[in-house]
Amino acid sequence: NVIGQLSFDPLKFQNMMSAEQVELIKEIVGLDFAELEKEKEEVYTDRSALNSRIKESIAHLKNSQAPDPETPDEEMSFKDALNRLNELREKRRIYQAVVQRKEKSESDIKGAQGEIQDIDEEIAKLQERKGNLETFIRGTQRAMDKEVLPPVVSEDDIRTVEIELETLEKKNAEIRSAKRYREAIRNADKLKVQSDELTEKLRRIDQDKQTQAAAAKMPIEGLSLTDEGVVYNNMLFDRLSTGQQIRVSTAIGMALNPDLKVIFIREGSLLDSDG
Predict the structure, then answer these.
(1) Cβ distance 126 to 119 under 8 Å?
(2) 9, 16 Cβ separation under 8 angstroms
(3) Which of 102, 128, 133, 232 has its Cβ near the most Cβ atoms within 10 Å?
(4) How far apart are CA 93 and CA 150, in angstroms?
(5) Cβ(116)–Cβ(110) below 8 Å
(6) Residue 244 contacts by C-beta under 8 Å, 6 or more apart in sequence?
(7) For residue 260, which phi and psi values (nearest 5 degrees)?
(8) Phi then psi dihedrals of residue 9, to 5 deg
(9) How far apart are CA 47 and CA 146, in angstroms?
């Protein structure tokens, strides 16, 4: 097998692909990132989906016009406006009826006073008639004084509500648009928070992997693992000099079989005097 071959010829490690080198080192030191990698892939998938939804929300906002800050969230009631219009019309009708009665009363008084002027010429004959008319005037006046006019409802008041009814649907459309716009902003904010949480979870997963790798007993001091491959003294294995690669590969072979007395090292002449 590979490990058996590597125990005898450690430079086989030098010719492996970077991913194979990482997996071999993990096998030697007993590291298993299968569950973490599975979780990381799931988190990446969830974050990608959330970011797509964020882009959709932002695109919707770009195609929408920001509403007037004074635009309410709730649509206006056509029924309430119509009831208010009918109420104003009824008040207007009552007002006009009272005004007509008052005008009639005032006309009656003027008529009675005119008759008094005529009666004054025949006071003797018409004294009783005059008294009756004066009594009538006083009673009518008292009734008129007791009459209380309701609040004035002008034609302009009624026309204002009529115009409001005519423009009600347009205003409601603006309200619906504003509500969708604000909802899109809230959704984008929520999705951004969820995306940030997943990003932090990915960071913790990578940190957990680094912690486990750092705690593992490596075959040679300075050896570590990253997503890019095997690293020795902060340099990727494939960027090491040939002599350094031989040193690292030999240490791995010795770790695999510490009792082996003979190790075959190809290109040993490339080692320096320390090597």
Answers:
(1) yes
(2) no
(3) 232
(4) 11
(5) no
(6) 232
(7) -70, 130
(8) -125, 85
(9) 78
- Whose tokens are 């504003």? That residue is 178
Eight-state DSSP code of residue 267: T
Give kind and range of the element (H or E) at residue 216.
Answer: none
Query: Nearest to residue 222, comparing CAs of 234, 208, 206?
Result: 234
Indicate if the alpha-carbon torsion angle 236, 240, 244, 246 is positive or negative.
Answer: positive
The structure tokens 């115009």 sit at: 163
pLDDT at 275 over 70: no
In this structure, are residues 74 and 226 in contact, taking their beta carbons and an 8 Å threshold? no
Q: Please name which of 233, 226, 234, 229 lies closest in space to residue 209, comparing C-alpha atoms.
A: 226
* Assigned token pair, 246: 């031989």
Of all helices (H) and strands (E), which one includes residue 6?
helix 2-8
Predicted local confidence at residue 18, as pLDDT: 84
pLDDT band at residue 152 under the 50/70/90 scheme = confident
Scan for tokens 């004084």, then name that residue. 145
**Per-residue pLDDT at 8 exceeds 60:** no
Rounded (5°) CA angle 146-148-151: 175
